[in-house]
Specification:
Helices cover 42% and strands 14% of the residues. It is α/β, with parallel strands linked by helices. The strands form 3 sheets. A 4-stranded parallel beta sheet has the order 3-4-5-6. Strands 1-2 form a two-stranded antiparallel ribbon.
Length: 180
């Protein structure tokens, strides 16, 4: 798991390594790194409409480039963008570099309300697209997200059957989960 937050000490939570610090042995040539950085600075400045979003992208850009490089060096099979707003920049960098990694994109309510151009562009380039609520499918179309008809619906919720003292079996329920 990589996070845009950093630099902090890496941790292991529930057996999963959280990589705050991204270190790789492979070093790119300086001119390549500079040109890559310059390209993405121009991209950030011209892609988003709001100044605050441009500034956030510029702030996150070095971290996104490091994460994309670590993914490339470690040759990961699948990268899932758990959030579809600013982390979309990592996916766009991977796709721009023609990285063979499969990129999966999740867009939730916050991502849809932000309506970032990078999220819409990543929606177009993602190999797999997810959302977790039926209402989000209509929003994807209404907010003109590309390929809005190709999103998988995967409810993110609590299976109440796993809580025996609270669970009362009811035949009239279509689903047995709770989302707030």
């Amino acid at each position: 798991v990589f996070t845009l937050a950093g630099p902090m000490k890496s941790k292991i939570r529930e057996g999963i390594k959280i990589n705050y610090g991204v270190h790789t042995e492979q070093v790119e040539p300086v001119t390549r790194v500079f040109l890559d950085f310059l390209f993405w600075v121009i991209f950030a400045l011209y892609t988003e409409q709001k100044l605050v979003d441009k500034l956030k992208l510029l702030y996150l850009l070095p971290r996104c480039l490091k994460i994309a490089n670590a993914i490339k060096v470690n040759n990961y099979d699948i990268v899932h963008l758990y959030w579809g707003h600013y982390p979309s920049l990592v996916g766009l960098i991977l796709k721009h570099r023609s990285d063979p990694t499969i990129v999966s994109l999740f867009l939730g309510a916050y991502d849809l309300e932000k309506k970032l151009s990078i999220s819409k562009l990543m929606s177009l380039k993602a190999d797999v697209r997810w959302t977790h609520a039926q209402g989000n499918l209509a929003k994807l179309e209404r907010y003109e997200f590309p390929l809005s008809d190709q999103y998988n619906l995967n409810y993110r919720s609590l299976d109440i059957s796993k809580i025996p003292r609270l669970y009362i079996a009811r035949k009239d329920r279509k689903y047995d989960f709770i989302t707030v």
